[in-house]
Amino acid sequence: MKIKFISIYIFNAMILFSLSGCERGELFKSEKSIEEELKGSWNLLPIPRTANIEVWNYSDGKIYFERFAGSAEKDTADYTIKTSIAKVEMDVKNFRIAPQYNIKWQIVTINSKYLVIAGEDANGGVLQKDFRKAD
Fold this sequence. Notes:
The protein has two helices and eight strands; from the N terminus they run H-H-E-E-E-E-E-E-E-E. By secondary structure, it is α+β, with helices and mostly antiparallel strands. The chain has a single domain, classed as Calycin beta-barrel core domain (Lipocalin, Beta Barrel), CATH 2.40.128. Strands 1-2-3-4-5-6-7-8 form an eight-stranded antiparallel β-barrel. The longest helix is centred in the first third of the chain and has 19 residues, at about 1-20. The radius of gyration is 19 Å and the shape is elongated. It starts with a helix and ends with a strand.
């Protein structure tokens, strides 16, 4: 009986220790709170610096997209958020001028200043976008 108590204690301690190391607080947020944090305009951090300027504006399940590549291009897409214990996903659909963005993105980081999303592109590679919240 004493061994069972000790093993349960050690197991619980290991669980608490592993969870305390999680710095990604978005894993424990609701879909509604993620959507609230997404609201507003996000400026793409151009990597490399020669990349096009992009602005993604999130509002009520829509992304209003602007890209400046010589001339301004505008588009609108739909998104949904799904959270689980392991990840936060954003499913994007209906981009016309940027169909490569119609994928399931994983929200890697989101806070009041930065948003990082990553997803698998059509060729099996990783597509990552890093944004800074517009002022």
